[in-house]
Amino acid sequence: MEHWRTTCTSLGMCTILVLILATGASIPTVMITQVLSLDDEMVGLLHVNVTTPREAIDAARTAIESLIKRNPRLSPQFVRLGFKDCVGGCDGCLAVADPDNRGLEVPIAALNPVVDAYSKHGVTRADLWALAAMTGADVAQHPRERVDFKFEHYGRQTCEMSRETCRDINKGIVPCDATHGPHRRFPSADLTTHELLRFFDQSFGFDMRQTVAIMGAHTLGRLRRQNSGFDGEKGWVDHQERLDNEYYQALVGGNSPNDSLDVQINDTPNWQQRFIDNRNLPSVLDRYQWEPKRGNGGNHNGDDSNDGRDNKDDSDDNDNDNDNRDKRGENDRNRRHLRSGKRNTRDNESLGEVMTNVDIALVRDMEGFLAGDGKASCEFKERSNREQNRMRTCPVAHTLPQMAIYNSDNMAWLKDFRDVFTKMLLCGYDDHACSHDLCYVKPRPVRKETPSIFDSD
């Protein structure tokens, strides 16, 4: 159930209070309050007179860009919203009570005024969510190296229009709306290389290259324990609000795809698994995540297990924490951004980055080495001679050569990511090879649920 209350002062300040009440068997009743303060400029952007689909989309995009400018954290959140919405077909509906969708009530609430203003002339909420995802990726690019993210399709059906069966967290049937969507299965963060490729093939028709490209979206955003169980407040990479190939640089060594396999494997941070104890968080499972640590080797599941760590709220205040600035400046000097030279291998420092098993699976094939709880029985890098080998080194994944291409060529990745992200945002639709500036799409049958092997945990 959603309750809206809108008040406007004589100064043109408008505050929208969105209260979303979500109940379910596996999570306690929660009340989420999102307050959006809209100044005169933003209010004006939501009252543009539009008479065509293109005008509605252009006006909505300007409003979305303004939202992101006011709160840059919305950029990765919009990208995540686009992915989650399009698994099973983009329909502008999500079951926000589903643990896999924790945190997505924030970007949905942020977009509601835009949806109210510009869902007209055939443009739907599903279109505007896809537009927000594309805009979030577009504005996150570095100003010196960027590609155009053009929004060329509209007409996506919402779950209300397509008469889908929508369910609550107890699988009970409820009326469909933005926050009560069809039940969808999402991929686990513990997929192996083969399972990852299979998921994207069956869900979106992606080949290996496209799958490796779309995974680079993890260069944006961060992992919050209260949402996913992973402890990654600083993100997968240092610059969590910049869309570039830093994700690939963190996983692959060398400067060129022609570098030797030894360089690609060993000229990297030394990723090691760490156990995250989430017993203090209701309905959040314990996790294993990978972090770059001092020395060589794989697991370290001992004293730093995160037991009893404070549950951080969903705010973003720590993004600009002064205590982190000096460390980030030092980290920047060790990084290879855009066209700069070779970075430091960073074997003797920890930069606060994290990777999940499915990220590591792009460079290491852990088939047969992952337990049901996500613990790996192989190591990312071979130990030095003076250290005892406790377990085998993980085999190299066959996706490593494509990872190496993106590691050394930011523009190549941006172009591939744009193309595959555009394809993802059309999941469930066919534009019949339309060549116009803006094309109306028609629904086509899609697999509504991915195989049980991909049930999210």
Keywords summarizing the entry:
457 residues; Peroxidase, domain 1; Peroxidase, domain 2; alpha+beta; three-stranded antiparallel β-sheet; two-stranded parallel sheet; disordered C terminus
Question: Can you offer a commentary on this structure?
Answer:
The chain folds into two domains: 2-186 and 427-454, Peroxidase, domain 1 (Orthogonal Bundle); 193-309 and 331-410, Orthogonal Bundle (Peroxidase, domain 2). It starts with a strand and ends in a 14-residue tail after the last strand. 31% of the residues lie in helices and 12% in strands. It is of the alpha+beta class and 457 residues long. GO terms for molecular function: heme binding; metal ion binding; peroxidase activity.
SSE topology sketch:
Blueprint: E1 2-8, E2 14-22, E3 30-38, H1 40-45, H2 53-70, H3 74-86, H4 105-118, H5 125-139, E4 153-154, H6 159-162, E5 166-167, E6 173-174, H7 193-204, H8 208-214, H9 225-228, H10 246-251, H11 261-266, E7 271-276, E8 287-292, H12 325-333, H13 357-360, E9 378-379, E10 392-393, H14 400-408, H15 410-424, E11 429-430, E12 439-440, E13 442-443
Parallel strand pairs: 4-12, 9-10
Antiparallel strand pairs: 1-2, 2-3, 5-6, 7-8, 11-13
Helix pairs in contact: 2-4, 2-5, 3-4, 3-5, 4-5, 8-15, 14-15
Radius of gyration from the alpha-carbon trace, in angstroms: 22 Å
Shape call = globular
Report the strand count: 13
Q: How many discrete domains?
A: 2
Strand order of the largest sheet: 1-2-3
CATH class term of the largest domain: Mainly Alpha
The pLDDT mean sits at 80
